[in-house]
Each structure stands twice: as structure tokens, then as C-alpha cells.
Write the C-alpha cells for this entry.
Amino acid sequence: MTTPPAAPKVLVVEDEEPLLFSLAHNLRREGYTVLTAARGDDGLRLAREQHPDLILLDVMLPGVDGIQVCRLLRRNTTVPIIMLTALGGESARVAGLDTGADDYVTKPFGMRELLARIRALLRRSAPRDEPAAAPSVVSGDLRFDQQRRSVARDGQPLKLKPKEYELLLFFLEHPGRVFTREQILDAVWGDDFEGGARTVDVHVRWLRQKVEPDAANPVRIRTVRGSGYLFEG
Ligand code: CA
């Protein structure tokens, strides 16, 4: 006896309550399992914890905007993303920016059209029982498991705060290159972040305590005087 395949899981991130309600209702009626979030940061967290099969993502969101959510998700997942944009400048902005979204629809949209696009994207994406496998990445004694969002050092899981994890991932993806604090802020914290470059220094200090053989004499995350930081690997 075989188990029937699980219903595809769709995450809807939308702050307009009536629209969120209507989307969730229609998706459930089509047999999808539905997760909802009304803020960008909540959507990001749900996406990472629940591994949905598809994400409907509004652009203008409180917390973290949809474009930034999409950019952050694209660092470690290939989940299909459909952006929901308002009429006016947004759709052009989404189309013009390399957000990594697979598709976008302009509000107001027809529910049937949206459902058809969802079906099409789900058909095209990888079968769900082969999770878009987030390979583990190894660097020295560090092993990154992007699927589980965890890092182990010598087989021992490291306790990393979300930003420490993202910063470490950023370094890992760009070994041997010098980045200024501003570039790191922009890549890891996003354009809207209000804090200053000191934030990077503080997080680097914390990271060094977790990944360096001797945090006082860092050999992995090196300070490049007058420039910024360099990840040696
Ligand atoms: Ca909105």
C-alpha cells in the first residue's frame, strides 16, 4: 500500500488581510496545504523552517519587503516564487530587478489565472521527494548544511544567530575576496538597514569566537586594514 503524495505546501506572504484570506481559502479549496504570513520577516522565517513547495510573495510588506525576502531566500533555495505586485511602479521594479522570482502577477489578478500559474510552476519544479538539495558545503573543519540552516565545526553544531549564519554563509560564498563593511552590510542586512558599519564589526567578532582556532589571532576571517574583511576559508 502506498501513501498518497502529500499536498503541495504553499506559503502566502501578504499583508492585505482580505487578499490573504481569499488566497488561503482558494488554495485550500484546490487541495494545497497553506501557510500564511503578513510580514516579510515572518514569511522568511516560515519559508526557512517549513520548506514550502511554492511561495506567493507580496512586494510591499512590513518588516522586510518582498524583494529583499526573495533575494535572501535565493541564497539557499530554489523554491518557486511568484511575486504579487501592485499596479504602478512596482511591477516594473520587480521585472527590472534581478529578484530571483520565477513569475509575477499584477494586482488585481484573477484567481483562476493565479492558480494556473501555480500549477505550472509546481509541475516545472523538482519533485518534492528530492528536496532541492541544498548541498552541504565544507570549509576546513566547518560543515554547512543549508537545508537545515546549521553549521557544525568538527561535527559539533555551532549556535549561530540568524545574522551570524547569514554572514558566515556570505563569507563562505566569497572566499578570498575583500569586502568593505558597507558591501557586507548591503549584502547581509539589506539596503534598508539603519545601523552602521560597526554592526559588521560586532558580528565578525562574535563569529570569530565560534569559528576561529584563536579568536584573538584570526586566520579565517581576516581584517584587511583600511578596507574591510577577507574570508580565507
Ligand atoms: Ca502589501
